[in-house]
TrEMBL record:
Highest taxon above the source species: Bacteria
Keyword Signal carried by entry: yes
Origin species: Mangrovibacterium diazotrophicum
Signal peptide (UniProt feature, chain positions): 1-21
Pfam families per UniProt: DUF2141
Keywords carried by this UniProt record: Signal
Protein name stated in the entry: Uncharacterized protein (DUF2141 family)
UniProt keyword Signal, yes or no: yes
């Protein structure tokens, strides 16, 4: 009988710890996607040394854009500080298409809705804390 009590306590502790270890849910709201064509790419960075450097993202997510879809869910990021850039990859080529002058041809946006002027923003400008379930809205720049 004593073993059953210990087993019960052990299972209870494991259950409590598993709920504690769950990642917070990040709901990304993008209200102005122009069309249901292509994908939305979300690039997540977790430090200023890699921010906006190609192939150095902490995580990349791709979501199929569907008619009337403007909420995208990320549920596997651990608690921490992050910055993100998103873009509407209309032709699904996994690249932000640009003009010959380097100006983006597809909609893009940064966390905290930072609008770059003459240079790209830095990590601190775009940084947000993910410690609990969070909603972030980013409007695409066209």
């Amino acid at each position: 009988m004593k073993i059953i009590k210990y087993l019960f306590c052990f299972c209870f502790i494991l259950l409590a710890l598993s709920n504690y270890a769950q990642s917070p849910v990040l709901k990304l709201i993008v209200p102005n996607v122009e069309s249901a064509q292509g994908d939305l790419q979300v690039s997540i960075f977790n430090n200023d040394k890699t921010f906006l450097k190609e192939k150095e993202e902490y995580r990349i997510y791709r979501f199929k854009v569907e008619k009337d879809s403007d909420v995208f869910t990320i549920d596997d990021l651990p608690q921490g500080e992050y910055a993100m850039i998103i873009f509407h990859d209309k032709n699904s080529n996994k690249d932000l298409d640009r003009s010959f002058l380097g100006i983006p041809k597809e909609g893009y946006g940064f966390s905290n809705n930072i609008k770059p002027h003459l240079s790209a923003p830095d990590f601190r400008d775009c940084c947000f804390s993910l410690v609990k379930d969070t909603k972030i809205e980013i409007e695409l720049l066209y």
